[in-house]
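Journal club prep, notes for RB
We'll compare a predicted complex against what the paper describes. Inputs for the zinc ion case:
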Amino acid sequence: MKRASFLLPVATLAALLLVADSAKARDRGADGEFSKRTSRHFVLYQDVDIDRTSGFRGSRRFEQQTLEVLEAAYDQLAEKLGLRPERPITVVVYDPGVFDARFGGLFRFPAAGFYGDSIHLRGDTVVTDRLVAVLHHEFVHAALHDAAPTLVVPAWLNEGIAEWFEARALGKRQLAAEEKSWLRDRAEKGQLYSLAELSTPNLGHLEPAAARAAYLQSYAFVDFLVRRHGERRLREALADFLRTRKLERSMQRSYRDSLPDLEARFREDL
Ligand SMILES: [Zn+2]
């Protein structure tokens, strides 16, 4: 099953870290001492239980590679969507066992990471494709939050861009054939979500199957917008929305089409 990643409101995060603190006494796996390493735009804290410091599977290499992936994500997001966070972004990488013990029970589906005031990740001992994807995904949430900290971004836009950006990072140019047919099937059964239903601040409340559908549909809609109208329009709409906080009007300006009309054309496109 795909390990979803998502974002949490800061208030939820505060409550969650409180739980994490009380859980601290119980979990042992990594040593609980986070090593810190910085790059141009990121501050990385890492506590994965990696046996050695140096060498191919050493912790130093892991930290350097993780920061390289993040810096590449920074450049990519700046180029694609014009988002360039100015304050350094904190990224905390937990040992998988520690992450599951602290945060696992708090989500309704297995989580690979989440964004609150910083990026929290279920780590690995080497930089896998999965980790690359989650780093890109959570960075989108961090960048949007940095651009407009008090703005509530609808889940379809926030998660849709995050899913789209992580797919691009792995070289995926569009929805996979099985993803398309799965969505088409849901459309035929009248089971697609409306954009209004996907406009909650996050999707963390959904059951696993519902969450999978909601994430995929959000991604599919952003994919549709980019495929049909290019990255530039999305970049313009996003910049306008972050400035004016009026999404419907920003979409209308960039796409010369209302959000309900774009939604209708997305459904036809399926
Ligand atoms: Zn997310």
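Talking point for the session: The chain has two domains: 4-147, 155-269.
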